[in-house]
Write a structure and sequence with these properties.
There is one protein chain. Helices cover about 40% and strands about 15% of the residues. The chain is α/β, with parallel strands linked by helices. The strands form four sheets. Strands 1-9-8-5-4-2-3 form a seven-stranded mixed β-sheet, sandwiched between helices. A three-stranded antiparallel β-sheet has the order 12-13-14. Helix 1 (about 10-30) packs across helix 8 (about 240-250), helix 3 packs across helix 4 (about 90-95) and helix 3 (about 60-70) crosses helix 7. The longest helix has 23 residues, at about 360-380. It is globular, with a radius of gyration of 21 Å.
Length: about 375
């Protein structure tokens, strides 16, 4: 089988082509490329979908994190707690602004931040925590929010991978990921569940004052043209990207359901393979499967990856090196060892999961995975 992809964006575009082309033509016919009306329209649609007061577009998900830290007034030398098992951007912006990233371990099942480790890491210098909703499942927000409130620190949700997921509190109340902390950060990188045709991001909040400050910072620190109240940056959501996102947002629940269907088929096929652990589902969060990430015990992860590649099946390792072992971050905590993060870095492997998965393609992926473990078992029996 040829041309299997981790995410099939070409087929998705072809399916949505009439609506997307019409939306792009509207932009091109008016030449409103910067801050065109489509940006405001998308922001309103996104806020309504998430049931949050404000959604502010920006250039990308990394900028969303940086602007959020700036808007909260976190200063150089302050500490910000982050999970060590995440993409570099989460910690990168903290270091870029002269703050100290404090990395803590994650849960071995959900891969999200370990609440007990987060609480233990708080010091008088701690100003914020950034729980990452990794691979499409929301972190355990209720205790995180309670600890943060009690300790007087801010919560910035890294929601780059989990838009559409929903968290349920112990009293039955439900909330979308990215809407529970002071600020939530979204990425619309093309491969995300809600992806545009380039870079794009957004910041969400229910706080009017923070929303106004975020808008200023993202627009060179100005609330009125040529009057700069704070030091800001140039981070705009492109009008063309906003037009694409408006179309795709109308299909987001459908996208999430399609990914969940693919994940369920994988689960059914792999649940009895002894050295393979399928993704856990937290009782208090839905999972929208930005990634379908297996754990491969017994040191077989890299061999499985090679086996799949030989059969035309792509796979990815998210993430092969803990952040605190990356050269850029070693000096923050040179003696740090986080056992779960290190185990995951040696075991995780993500399989293709997307909205356009065909049954025969998934059957081939499944049979390729199963044949590896059947071969391993036969080799041990000899």
């Amino acid at each position: 089988m040829n041309n299997i992809q981790m995410v099939d964006l070409v087929s998705q575009y072809k399916r949505l082509k009439p609506a997307i082309d019409m939306a792009l033509e509207r932009c091109l016919s008016t030449a409103h490329y910067i801050n065109g009306p489509q940006v405001g329209e998308f922001e309103e649609q996104l806020a309504a979908y998430l049931n949050v007061k404000h959604a502010i577009g920006c250039a990308n998900g990394t900028d969303a994190l940086q602007i959020s830290l700036m808007a909260l007034g976190v200063r150089p030398g302050d500490e910000v707690i982050v999970p060590a098992f995440t993409y570099v951007a989460t910690a990168e912006v903290i270091a870029l602004l002269g703050m100290t990233p404090v990395m803590v371990d994650v849960n071995p099942d959900t891969f999200n931040i370990n609440v007990e480790q987060f609480e233990k890491a708080i010091t008088p210098r701690t100003k914020a925590v950034v729980p990452v909703h990794l691979f499409g499942q929301t972190s355990d927000m209720e205790p995180i929010l309670e600890i943060a409130r009690r300790q007087g620190i801010s919560v910035i949700e890294d929601n780059a991978q989990a838009i559409g997921s929903e968290y349920t509190f112990s009293d039955g109340r439900r909330a979308r990921s990215g809407t529970m902390g002071e600020l939530g950060c979204l990425s619309f990188f093309p491969s995300k569940n809600l992806g545009c045709f380039g870079d794009g991001g957004a910041i969400t909040t229910n706080n009017d004052e923070l929303a106004a400050r975020v808008r200023m910072i993202a627009n060179h620190g100005q609330s009125k043209k040529y009057y700069h109240d704070v030091i800001g940056v140039n981070s705009r959501l492109d009008t063309l990207q906003a037009a694409v996102l408006s179309v795709k947002l109308g299909h987001l629940d459908e996208f999430c359901a399609a990914r969940q269907e693919v994940a369920a088929a994988y689960d059914s096929a792999f649940s009895q393979l002894g050295e393979l652990t399928v993704p856990a589902r937290a009782n208090n969060s839905t999972h929208v499967f930005h990634q379908y990430t297996l754990k491969v015990a017994g040191g077989g992860r890299d061999r499985l990856k090679e086996h799949l590649e030989a059969r035309g099946v792509p796979s990815m390792i998210y993430y092969p090196v803990p952040l605190y072992k990356q050269e850029a971050f070693r000096h923050y905590s040179p003696d740090l060892t986080l056992p779960v993060t290190e185990e995951l870095s040696d075991q995780v492997l993500s399989l293709p999961v997307h909205t356009e998965m065909k049954p025969d393609t998934q059957d081939h992926i499944i049979s390729s995975v199963r044949s590896f473990f059947e071969g391993e078992a036969a080799g041990r029996a000899v």
